[in-house]
User: Which sequence fits this backbone?
């Protein structure tokens, strides 16, 4: 076999692999087909933009950061609290300190970044397990939000703030446009830079990575800082969309985000993942909820269906990944022998 | 453990969070137009012996107050406000310890709070259970400790335990009022959407009763229900958006709690249907009253949360004086249209926080 043929074959193989890895895309398409049969309004532009793309984009933004964190064998359970705290501080500063809205948003992002850095500190310097640290920060975040808001309730935010959550750019929901930009950034960082490479490396074998001279702590700090900023951004978009700030913002989000990332193909045990898959996972969950709701399925049944779909998706993903690992091992051996 | 550098970015992070939080707290202006609730954290020695007769105790009367949340709206703070104000009027020296569970679903948290109150040796416990189903263990714990317990919000009797007094509203009655009002408003026909909170008595009474009334009084009205929203604004927004999309003929949406109304109003506004789809609130807190005045909410089932506090203060005063008390203190709800709100509510309540 000559090298050109090998390259073409390799390109085709890569494309096939990508499509195969993106099995969540097929799940999403399948779900959309099923939902469009169940409800005639599912495929309308209004539904897809307002009830699917807008809410799904906000969750999907956090999944980008979570992909890096989980790939590096970490976890962040505090994203929902971070979202609530950051957005509350930002908007209260706009109201109490009369800051311009953009500055208030920047302040939210700084608080989110700080939240992520505190997580990273305890994980990398004190060596506390990410699960424990972020669980603690989940509670601290909610408590701080209550303290900052004085348990008072704020409804009616400035229009220029609300536009971030409910506005549109070129006919697309603003959160969706922001997601597209972040998706490009996320894929680039994950697949084409050391930031992504070291996340996979740390997740696969942390001690070997450190022995190779890579500053694992610095990269982990970067991942938690990144997800901190993204969670804060999501908090801003949520509160802007709902026109209110509340300590309930983002409650339970961590589970939605983790579920989306895992069904999107990222290994919960680290070492491998996909930013695109995570985003598609977030969309799949929202499509499922939206479709069942449009079809008029009882909420309690909805919860059961969603739970079953997540488990089945994960089980299928696990079986597939095991089989692929075997196939690819055999393929690599074949290619090595043919080149030789 | 590695050495921690003084100029660590994390140190800066912690400083940023603290400084910003303190700045925001410090600069936040208190709500105008109403007397302020004073929150006091009182540590009562654990060795305090709870007197069998509260009247025999001298010094401040300590009340442990546990609302289901302090986070969703100001609704439960008004209860505390009424309690403090009425106690002052009655000349009672009251200290209130307020503790709420971590979320509106955390029944175990609220039970733990009641157990903490018992350990602290409070004189009275006043609870607004997160759900009717969560109440019995809390009342039982108070009974076993011999502490009088007042249950608020719902008047549904709790079987098998001894509630000192119920101070609240008959939710089935209010559900009926809403159902009848909605039926009249839509003139007996059309599609009505009803959002839901969480499974349980509160939801069944406010939503289920309204649906039953609509079905019997207005059989031509088509009723559709949304998914359970866990009393959350974001989820109400999503649910309403989907309902409006799937049912373009909706004439009216009933939100069985103020946080849901806020989400419904946002979704209706986003869909460009303000004024075309009527929104009915349950609670009529100042935020939803404001929406009613802006024409975004046509009417609401109004409760008077501060009266819960006032009634509770009176119950405590009567118990302190050794008087016989009524078991049930009904604070009835009332449907009010946007135009009727001014006459139904005091000015300080309407303008609270504005």
Assistant:
């Amino acid at each position: 076999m000559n090298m050109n043929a090998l390259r073409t074959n390799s390109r085709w193989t890569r494309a096939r692999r990508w499509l195969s890895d993106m099995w969540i895309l097929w799940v999403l398409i399948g779900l959309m087909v099923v939902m469009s049969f169940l409800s005639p309004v599912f495929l309308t532009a209004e539904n897809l933009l307002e009830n699917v793309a807008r809410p799904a984009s906000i969750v999907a933004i956090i999944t980008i950061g979570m992909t890096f964190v989980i790939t590096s064998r970490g976890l962040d359970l505090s994203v929902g609290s971070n979202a609530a705290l950051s957005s509350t501080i930002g908007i209260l500063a706009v109201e109490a300190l009369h800051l311009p809205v953009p500055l208030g948003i920047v302040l939210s992002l700084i608080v989110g970044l700080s939240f992520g850095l505190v997580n990273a500190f305890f994980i990398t310097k004190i060596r506390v397990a990410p699960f424990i640290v972020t669980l603690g920060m989940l509670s601290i975040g909610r408590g701080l939000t209550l303290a900052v808001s004085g348990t008072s309730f704020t409804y009616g935010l400035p229009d220029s703030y609300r536009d971030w959550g409910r506005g549109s750019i070129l006919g697309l929901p603003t959160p969706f446009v922001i997601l597209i930009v972040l998706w490009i950034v996320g894929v680039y960082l994950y697949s084409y830079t050391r930031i992504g490479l070291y996340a996979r490396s740390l997740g696969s074998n942390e001690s070997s990575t450190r022995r190779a001279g890579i500053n694992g702590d610095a990269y982990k700090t970067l991942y938690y800082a990144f997800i901190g900023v993204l969670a804060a951004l999501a908090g801003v978009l949520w509160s802007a969309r709902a026109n209110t700030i509340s300590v309930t913002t983002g409650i339970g989000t961590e589970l939605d985000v983790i579920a989306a990332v895992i069904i999107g193909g990222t290994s919960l045990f680290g070492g491998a993942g996909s930013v695109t898959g995570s985003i598609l996972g977030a969309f799949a969950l929202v499509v499922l909820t939206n479709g069942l709701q449009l079809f008029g399925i009882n909420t309690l049944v909805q919860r059961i269906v969603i739970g079953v779909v997540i488990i089945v998706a994960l089980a299928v993903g696990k079986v597939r990944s095991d089989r692929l690992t075997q196939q690819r091992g055999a393929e690599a051996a074949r290619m090595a022998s043919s080149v030789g | 453990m590695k050495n921690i550098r003084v100029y660590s970015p994390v140190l800066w992070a912690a400083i940023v969070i603290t400084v910003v939080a303190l700045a925001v707290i410090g600069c936040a202006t208190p709500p105008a137009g109403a007397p302020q609730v004073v929150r006091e954290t009182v540590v009562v020695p654990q060795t305090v012996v709870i007197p069998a007769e509260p009247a025999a105790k001298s010094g401040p009367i300590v009340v442990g107050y546990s609302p289901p949340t302090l986070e969703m709206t100001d609704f439960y703070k008004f209860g505390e406000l009424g309690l403090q104000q009425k106690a002052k009027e009655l000349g009672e020296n009251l200290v209130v310890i307020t503790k709420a569970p971590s979320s509106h679903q955390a029944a175990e948290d609220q039970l733990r709070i009641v157990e903490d109150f018992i350990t602290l040796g409070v004189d009275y416990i006043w609870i607004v259970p997160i759900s009717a189903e969560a109440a019995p263990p809390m009342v039982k714990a108070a009974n076993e400790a011999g502490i009088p317990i007042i249950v608020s919000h719902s008047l549904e009797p709790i079987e098998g335990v001894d509630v000192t007094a119920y101070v609240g509203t008959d939710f089935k009655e209010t559900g009926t009022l809403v159902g009848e009002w909605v039926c009249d408003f839509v003139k007996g026909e059309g599609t009505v959407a009803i959002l839901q909170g969480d499974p349980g008595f509160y939801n069944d009474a406010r939503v289920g009763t309204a649906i039953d009334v609509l079905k019997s009084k207005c059989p031509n009205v088509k009723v559709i229900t949304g998914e359970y929203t866990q009393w959350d604004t974001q989820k109400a927004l999503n649910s309403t958006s989907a309902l409006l999309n799937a049912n373009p003929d909706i004439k009216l949406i009933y939100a069985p709690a103020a946080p849901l109304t806020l989400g419904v109003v946002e979704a209706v506004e986003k869909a460009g249907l303000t004024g075309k789809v009527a929104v009915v609130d349950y609670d009529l807190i100042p935020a939803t009253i404001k929406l009613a005045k802006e024409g975004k909410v046509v009417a609401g089932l109004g409760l008077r949360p501060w009266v819960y506090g006032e009634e509770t203060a009176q119950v405590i005063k009567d118990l302190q004086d050794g008087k016989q008390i009524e078991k049930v203190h009904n604070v009835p709800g009332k449907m009010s249209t946007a135009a009727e709100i001014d006459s139904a509510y005091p000015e300080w309540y309407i303008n609270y926080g504005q």
